[in-house]
Each structure stands twice: as C-alpha cells, then as structure tokens.
Amino acid sequence: MKDRKKKIMTAAVVVASLLVAYFIARFAVLDQAEEHDANIQRLRGEVKELKDFNQRKGLYEKKLKNYAARTLGLATQDVSNQIRSRMDKMVTASGMRRSKTASIPITGSPTSAYQEIGWKYDLVGTLPQVVNMMYLLKNDPYLHQIEGFSILPTKNEGEFNLGFSYVTLVLKKDKKNGKEKIITGDVENPKPIASLADSETLSLYGGIAERNIFRPFIKPAPPAVATTPPATQPKNPVDNDKRFKIVSLSLWGKIQEICIEDTQTSENKRYNIGDSLAGGKIVVVDYRKLPKPTQPEMLSYSRAILKIGQDFYAVELGETLADKYRLTGTKIPPALRPKPQLKNE
Hints:
Elements: H1 2-69, H2 76-94, E1 97-98, E2 104-107, E3 114-125, H3 127-138, E4 145-153, E5 160-171, E6 175-176, E7 179-180, H4 199-202, H5 206-210, H6 237-242, E8 244-252, E9 255-262, E10 267-272, E11 276-277, E12 280-286, E13 290-291, E14 299-300, E15 303-308, E16 311-316, E17 325-326
Antiparallel strand pairs: 1-3, 2-3, 3-5, 4-5, 6-7, 8-9, 9-10, 11-12, 12-15, 13-14, 15-16, 16-17
C-alpha cells in the first residue's frame, strides 16, 4: 500500500515538473519565437514598401523637376506680382475689362513642400471676349489651376461677368550642402502669354460663343406646317428672308428641330425635317464642323440644309434665311450626295 502511494506521489511530481518545464519553455522560447516571427513579417513588409518607393523615386524626381521648371520662382511675393502682371496682359489681350470688384490676392496655408499663391478676378465683357480669356488661361504655360470659374449674364444685353481664381504653387527651398536643388523657370525672362493669333486652335472655342447657352429652355412645339411667316410680308422675298434668323438647331433624340426667330417681333417658330422654308424644303440639319463661308478661319458647328429645286442650300446657325448659299461637292452632306453609278464590265 505504501509502495503504491509512493508511486502515485512520484508520478504526480513528474507531471508537475513537466508542466512547469513546459510553461518555462513556452515563456522563454515559444512566445519569443512567435514575437520574432511577427517582427520578421513586419520588417519584410517595410522592406517591400521601401523597395517600391525607391523604384518610384526616379519618377518622382522627374515629375518634381518638370513641375519646378513650370513655376514662377521661389519667393512668394515675387510670384504674386508675376501672376498679376500676366493676368493684366491676358485681360488686355482678351478685350475684357475689370468689374467694380477689386482683384484679391490669394495665399494658401503653407505645407512642408509648397504654398499656394494666386489672384481672384471678376471681369466683364462679351461672350467672344470671355472665350478669348478662357483660351488664354487654358494655354498659359506655367503650372496653374483655375478655381471658382463662373460666367453670368449682366444687366447689359450682350455682356457677361467672368469670375475665376488663378492659383499656382511656390515650391519650398530644399538645400543640401549649401546648394538649392529646385530649379524653377527663368524668373527674369518669363514666358509670353498665349497668342490669340492661333486661329485654328482658338476656333475650337468658337462654338461656345456661337451657341446661345444662356437662352431659357423653351418646350418644343408641335411640328409647324406653315411656310415662311407672317401674313403681311414684304414684296421682296430677299428682304423678307433677312427678317428671319436661325437661333437653334437642336437634336431631341433622333428629331432634328430648327428654331427661327422673327427679328421684328422677337417671336420664335419651330420647323422639322420636311417642312417648307425659304422657297424650298428642309431636308436635314448638318452637324459637321466646317469653316464658315464668310470667315474661313472660323468654324461653324451646325447648319440647316434646304432643297430648292434640284439644288441644296445651307443656312448657318445664327444667320438669316437671306444668307443661304448653294452647296457643291463635299459641302453637301454625304447622305445627300448622288450615289456613283457602277459601270457594267
């Protein structure tokens, strides 16, 4: 009996010793091993991120040099003065004028790498002059962003308010061994503003001025049947055609609509394909981008096509019916050109 108790006690001591040894081994070895494994995984992730960053470093440096070369300098006050000088040149070139609201300088909160500098402007001018200013701002070669852009009609007919903020960056000086690493544009000899003489590029903006974007929405009316209005017409058909001007060539789904304004009464009338007009019949609205017949350096974006007799005539958007002109060759829309006859071999 005593031997049995002794064996049980011995076995219990052995089990307890093994448990103690296990916990000691886990605390001293296994737990630390798991912690080391976690650190290894974390460090591997950090190494991968550093490798990715180093691979992109060349791209970042190239972009920074490109941005810096398009800035106006490293002194905030000098950059602010440069912007104002450039804006004055643009305003003069566009034909616009300043409103009663004074121009306001803009200074953003500085960061460790750059600071935003700019000016807020409120200008007044005609829609073509607004387009000129838009072109000059868009094509300014220096690093910039246009914010708060708005165009609003004024009380004076034909004039608009143009509001915007011109903002650029002043990069912070980064010195190493006493040498500046940032190379900006030539501050002493700034680049000139864009030229409005580039009529081919500027003409792409012409559609903005030609389209009456501020005309209130007018619900489409049922197709008109009557010919050229009104009941009391001048005896001379040419004089009568001068009275009526095309003010809209809208596309409602697949329906082409021609809106004509009576310049004497300011009344609008709508026509559809197949309606009679100006001694002929409307056959299609042509939305091709083509040079204006009277101003080839400018582009026209739409025109009404009439068939009078066996010939086709066009009236450009914004022109009167008296300004219609005969179409020949490629001026005729492809769908209306006669199909070539195949010769029998």
